[in-house]
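[audit] Reproducing an earlier prediction to check determinism. Same input, same settings, fresh worker. If the tokens differ from the archived copy the diff job will pick it up downstream; this log only records the rerun itself.
[audit] input (338 residues):
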Amino acid sequence: METTRLGRTDLQVTRTSFGVLPLQRCDMDEAARILRRAYDAGITFYDTARMYSDSEEKIGRALSDVRDRIIIATKSGATTRAGLMEHLETSLKNLRTDYVDLLQLHNPRELPDPDDPDSSYAGLLVAKRKGMVRHIGISNHRRDIAIAAVDSGLYETLQYPISHLSSDEDVALIEHCKSADVGFIAMKALSGGLITNARAAFAFFRRYPTAVPIWGIQRMSELEEFIALEADPPSLEEMWPVIEKDREELAGDFCRGCGYCQPCPADIAISMAARMSLLLRRMPYQGFMTDKWHEQMHRIEQCTECGHCRAHCPYGLDTPALLRKNLEDYEAFYQEHK
């Protein structure tokens, strides 16, 4: 496995790294089997978060006996020093370790005041001073906050959504981080599942040697595909036509499925429903033709326009309008294919 230096942390991490969030949907034994296979194949970097239900526990069960040979990153969404320390204590217990290599603030809506002794940033410093974390970073979905975090000099890493669908302005963050010697971790490298050609996504990131994509993996077959890509990387030239086709088909505003708009008071599955038109045409559609999904999509009719989803969308989407558009398209597709 190729490795790269994660900014000024000096951590050497595998360029093929493991995003553990999707393993929430696996049972404990299967998750442990997948994680162990990843380790045996040479993957050393595992990214999770306190809010990813039992994903930390799954890492702890599968990899605690090789703790000194892997690099673990987790996140806290706490907004206070006390809250962050409480999250960290839980994370350490679940991970079966006494330290994490990287602790990140989880998508804060604004940067915490570094001079506030009760802020979440103060918590990062306390945790680092106590040896509970080795390095500190931040994740975010908003470019202005991401840039401000890098420019502040206070964070050693930035985690940000990047894929070959990203704008030039977003992709420029990779070089911006490189110039500041801040490690760059790319989340949503498959754009929440809308990119279906892993070879193309893999080739795109190989042009940026300091970017570390964390591939969200849920199935052993997905893991094996990335292991094979690492062994025999495709060229960007070979995959460029696929990338251009993806960009043409997915141009404009679309839901990335990040889930920050949820929970919905009307119980609408927003992160799926708001991109249903794309899912129907980029994935096997039959799974969405069930009575259950038909009922789920028609919950959109119960939207009260409360504004919660719109206010929490890090991409500034008009989510209710997007939901209505997707329902209209879904119903037409359903009537044609059911």
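[audit] rerun output stored. Observation attached for the diff report: The longest helix spans residues 319-337.
[audit] end
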